[in-house]
From TrEMBL:
InterPro entries: Nucleotide-bd_a/b_plait_sf, RBD_domain_sf, RRM_dom, snRNP35_RRM, U1_U11-U12_snRNP_70-35kDa. The gene is Snrnp35. It comes from the Eukaryota. The keyword Transcription regulation does not apply. It is found in: Nucleus. Residues 147-242 are annotated as: Disordered. This is U11/U12 small nuclear ribonucleoprotein 35 kDa protein. Keywords: Nucleus, RNA-binding.
């Protein structure tokens, strides 16, 4: 517990797939793919990874000029790389921004997260591909974040950090009666004690049934008597009026 931290210091797909980093088995196929993947960062990417920000959830219409206009307020920018599709040339919705100074990087990381650009709330974090050991991208089953609907939630990042583990005793065996022989015998005796009670309940219910029928029959006779009395009273009133 002393080494626990809400933000992952080293990427482990199995821990990233757990809300508190304590799962021992993967709960979806993407984690299996990430565990079996051997990812090597793109060697074609240049620049200092420790001065680079990852900006995601961008509007597909957002351009490099717009990003430069917004992020230049935090400091001098060295390079902006908006990731585009190789075939269509359209934006994929995320970019990398490299600053000249660490002070500007930290300020943008603190203030630009959840900023609205072109009607989209953006997400800002440090670059992890070249800085976090063992990093596996989202397309290979790794990454952080993810949608709840997809069932591939990932934890340990800024957007969805780990929850602190709760150490609870293992109560599964006692709950299902799989403990000692004394507990199993006690559960059997309890079931035996309940059976005659059920039979007594059925017998009492059978005894009460004819009583209910009598009460219903008595109620119907009372209603008939009341209706007859009302009819006779009505006839007497008519005779008096005449």
């Amino acid at each position: 517990m002393n080494d626990w931290a809400p933000i992952a210091k080293e990427y482990d797909p199995l821990k990233a797939g757990s809300i508190d980093g304590t799962d021992e088995e993967p709960h979806d196929r993407a984690i299996w793919r990430a565990m079996l993947a051997r990812y090597v960062p793109n060697k074609g990417v240049t620049g200092d990874p420790h001065l680079t920000l990852f900006v995601a959830r961008l509007n597909l219409q957002t351009t490099e000029e717009k990003l430069k206009e917004v992020f230049s307020r935090y400091g001098d920018i060295r390079k902006i790389r908006l990731v585009r599709d190789l075939v269509t040339g359209f934006s994929k919705g995320y970019a990398f921004i490299e600053y000249k100074e660490e002070r500007a990087l930290l300020k943008a990381h603190r203030d630009a997260n959840r900023l609205v650009i072109d009607q989209h709330e953006i997400f800002v974090d440090f670059e992890l591909e070249r800085t976090l050991k063992g990093w596996i991208p989202r397309r290979l089953g790794g990454g952080f974040g993810g949608k709840k609907e997809s069932g591939q939630l990932r934890f340990g990042g800024r957007d969805r950090p780990f929850r602190k583990p709760i150490n609870l005793p293992n109560m599964k065996n006692d709950f299902y009666g799989e403990g000692s022989a004394e507990k199993r015998n006690w559960s059997r005796e309890a079931t035996r004690d309940w059976r005659p009670r059920d039979r007594d309940h059925e017998r009492s219910r059978d005894k009460r049934w004819p009583e209910r029928e009598r009460s219903w029959a008595w109620g119907e006779s009372e209603r008939e008597r009341d209706s007859k009395e009302e009819r006779s009273r009505g006839r007497e009133r008519k005779d008096r009026d005449r």
